[in-house]
């Protein structure tokens, strides 16, 4: 047991009273030579938010002092919420005057100052800032005579950054800049900074997306050490690498991906085994090329995942791996970690095997071609691929069985049409295309789901340290609120206490094909918790699964890479008690960090999409469209168009009456005319504004 755990156990004792560091040193028998090291451990534990030093320099456990550690989630109005690291705790409301210099993203310690009554949240004050994350901020520069200000692009940072004249460094009005914070905010005092990079003028080609990349601290280039390691990797599989592997090169394996995909990390194969199916899911063996704690591994962990923006990919691994030796390109030998599952005609996995293999993919198939074949019999893309066509029909059969099994247990399927932005060669948006999920996408989805579940269940029963993908049960209040909203459409949920996913699945089935389908599915999704990574097993509510993990995408997700290492070590008998102890310490950090990088990637992807939507609609000012009321607020209502674009109809642009939001009856109503607007109402709108800086679109109703 380490010294940190000993300190925690000692301080956790009932009779412990906060002590000075000298008293703790005496208690632990620390001699003079070890004193500095012991004090460093206390400092580390304080920075980690495990212990806190009181005003009279005494140390105690944070949780025993009724303090909470978490991250600040800012709001443009100045207040914020603490998102606790203890996932069992609710978020805590922090008024602007109680932030005490903390800003969005900071890791802090909060004291509860007021208990929340009924459905109100607890209220707290920041008493300690453990970690600052916004050392640089991206925004728009505004100059004055003797100083300037940077207005942050991220509206959750509620302060403008003051820039003294000698730190403006050539920045001009209306330029996008990166400002480095030189002095953090205090009560009634803005942060101070210096301009370290000028990105270009607002509206200048390329500056918009570059600003988002900088805002979310995404790195397009890899550090030199990482690139050097990647460049040394042999782009051919050698006989030496193959000799201890299962040779699967004669197996009829192939990949199915989008037309633009370059990082092909999964291939599939299928055979009949009597009445059963033998499904092979072959995943690129990235862990073979990325040794733990190497420069490549450290950079992959830091990034956490690849980020897919509208016009580019920011990969987790350099192209030598992501598009090269790890990509399962056709007619090339590739190393895999392959999972073979024997599945019966009810969709049960009756047997499985994991092998280190080598495959040679027979074809690189495209989703649309496979869907055209299976849905319409179009086989132009499959000349001389008769074996593959037969396998695809067998795969469709198995995918249907697996989907029906998931449906029977209550798995919730959100069949959202995805919007794809079409850009011209200059990066200007020319169209927004709605893409429905087709049979080929469903086949791969079902096979990846069953593979992830199979691995998770097996590792759960092995009782080894592991990373799970969990989705906890939703909060009762959110489900009750959702129930009130859908009541407007004539739907209802039976019993919102201890709700089963099957009940929510029923709603998604009832709305299928109706005009309100996308709206209600969106409201339901917002009512559920976000899935996350965890070193502790838990359910996946949305999939109605007892065990789930992410195993199938190690090129673009770090948890999958970590999981591959654990599985290989387990099968080779290398998970010694010492290694298990190390993993138990490491995995919670991996889970928390990659959950954060995943959210960052989603936010960056959404920001770029919102930007390009605003740019697309800016060329359509004055156009009239039909849409559906998708959200109601105290300042107006949002309307979603057929192409998925959403815009705000602000109350100030509803000129025929004074409108307000009746949140009890959940509609917008005119004070004089009593005219009502409800969720799901079909309305006609005119596009009146598209703001590329704030990435928003404004509409006005037309009769």
From TrEMBL:
Domain S1 motif: 622-702
EC number, as in UniProt: 3.1.13.1
Transmembrane segments: none
Cell location: Cytoplasm
Biological source species: Tepidimicrobium xylanilyticum
Biological process according to GO: mRNA catabolic process
Similarity field: Belongs to the RNR ribonuclease family. RNase R subfamily.
Encoding gene (name): rnr
Domain of life: Bacteria
SUPFAM superfamilies associated with the record: Nucleic acid-binding proteins
GO molecular function, one term: RNA binding
One GO CC annotation: cytosol
Pfam families for the chain: CSD2, OB_RNB, RNB, S1
UniProt keyword Nuclease present: yes
Protein name: Ribonuclease R
Function: 3'-5' exoribonuclease that releases 5'-nucleoside monophosphates and is involved in maturation of structured RNAs.
Keywords per UniProt: Cytoplasm, Exonuclease, Hydrolase, Nuclease, RNA-binding
SMART domains: CSP, RNB, S1
Enzyme class: hydrolase
Chemical reaction(s) catalysed: Exonucleolytic cleavage in the 3'- to 5'-direction to yield nucleoside 5'-phosphates
Database matches in NCBIfam families: 3_prime_RNase, RNase_R
């Amino acid at each position: 047991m380490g010294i940190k755990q000993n300190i925690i156990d000692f301080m956790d004792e009932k009779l412990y009273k906060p002590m000075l560091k000298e008293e703790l040193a005496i208690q632990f028998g620390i001699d003079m030579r070890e004193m500095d090291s012991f004090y460093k451990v206390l400092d580390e534990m304080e920075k980690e938010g495990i212990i806190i030093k009181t005003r009279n320099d005494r140390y105690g456990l944070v949780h025993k002092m009724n303090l909470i550690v978490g991250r600040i989630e800012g709001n443009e109005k100045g207040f914020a919420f603490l998102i606790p690291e203890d996932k069992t705790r609710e978020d805590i409301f922090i008024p602007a005057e109680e932030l005490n210099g903390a800003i969005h993203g900071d890791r802090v310690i909060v004291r509860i100052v007021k208990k929340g009554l009924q459905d109100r949240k607890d209220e707290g004050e920041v008493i300690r800032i453990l970690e600052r994350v916004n050392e640089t901020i991206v925004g728009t520069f505004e100059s004055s005579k003797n100083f300037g200000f940077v207005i942050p692009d991220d509206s959750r940072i509620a302060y403008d950054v003051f820039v003294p004249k000698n730190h403006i460094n050539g920045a001009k009005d209306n330029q996008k800049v990166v400002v480095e914070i030189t002095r953090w905010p205090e009560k009634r005092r803005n942060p101070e900074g210096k301009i370290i990079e000028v990105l270009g003028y607002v509206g200048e080609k390329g500056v918009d997306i570059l600003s988002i990349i900088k805002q979310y601290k995404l790195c397009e280039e890899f550090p030199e050490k990482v690139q050097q390691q990647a460049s040394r990797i042999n782009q051919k599989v050698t006989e030496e690498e193959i000799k201890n592997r299962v040779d699967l090169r004669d197996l009829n394996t192939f990949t199915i991906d989008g037309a633009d995909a370059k990082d092909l990390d999964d291939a599939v194969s299928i055979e009949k085994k009597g009445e059963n199916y033998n499904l092979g899911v072959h995943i690129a063996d990235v862990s073979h090329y990325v040794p733990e704690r190497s420069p490549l591994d450290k950079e992959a962990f830091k990034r956490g995942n690849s980020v897919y923006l509208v016009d580019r990919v920011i990969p987790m691994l350099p192209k030598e791996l992501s598009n090269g030796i790890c990509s399962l390109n056709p007619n090339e030998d590739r190393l895999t970690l392959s999972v073979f599952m024997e599945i019966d005609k009810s969709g049960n996995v009756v047997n499985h095997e994991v092998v280190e293999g080598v495959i040679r993919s027979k074809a690189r198939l495209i989703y649309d071609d496979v869907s055209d074949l299976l849905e319409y019999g179009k086989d132009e893309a499959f000349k001389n691929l008769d074996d593959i066509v037969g396998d695809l029909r067998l795969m469709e059969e198995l995918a249907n069985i697996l989907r029906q099994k998931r449906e029977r247990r209550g798995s919730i399927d959100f069949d959202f049409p995805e919007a794809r932005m079409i850009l011209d060669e200059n990066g200007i948006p020319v169209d927004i295309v709605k893409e429905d999920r087709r049979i080929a996408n469903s086949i791969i989805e079902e096979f990846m789901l069953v593979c992830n579940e199979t691995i998770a269940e097996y590792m759960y029963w092995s009782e080894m340290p592991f990373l799970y993908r969990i989705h906890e049960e939703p909060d009762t209040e959110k489900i009750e609120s959702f129930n009130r909203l859908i009541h407007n459409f004539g739907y209802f949920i039976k019993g919102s206490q201890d709700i089963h996913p099957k009940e929510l699945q029923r709603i998604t089935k009832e709305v299928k094909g109706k005009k309100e389908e996308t709206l209600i599915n969106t409201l339901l999704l917002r009512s559920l918790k976000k899935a996350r990574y965890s070193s502790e097993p838990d359910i996946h509510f949305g999939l109605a699964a007892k065990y789930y993990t992410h195993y199938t995408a190690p090129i673009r997700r770090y948890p999958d890479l970590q999981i591959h290492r654990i599985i290989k070590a387990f099968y080779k008998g290398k998970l010694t008690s010492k290694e298990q102890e190390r993993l138990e310490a490491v995995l919670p950090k991996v889970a928390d960090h990659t959950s954060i990088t995943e959210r960052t990637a989603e936010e960056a992807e959404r920001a770029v999409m919102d930007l390009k939507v605003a740019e697309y609609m800016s060329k359509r000012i004055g156009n009239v469209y039909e849409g559906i009321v998708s959200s109601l607020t105290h300042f107006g209502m949002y309307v979603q168009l057929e192409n998925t674009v959403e815009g705000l109809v602000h109350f100030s642009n509803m000129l025929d009456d004074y409108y307000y939001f009746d949140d009890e009856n959940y509609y917008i109503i005119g004070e004089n005319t009593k005219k009502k607007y409800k969720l799901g109402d079909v309305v006609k709108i005119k596009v009146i504004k598209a703001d590329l800086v704030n990435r928003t679109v404004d509409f006005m109703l037309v009769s």
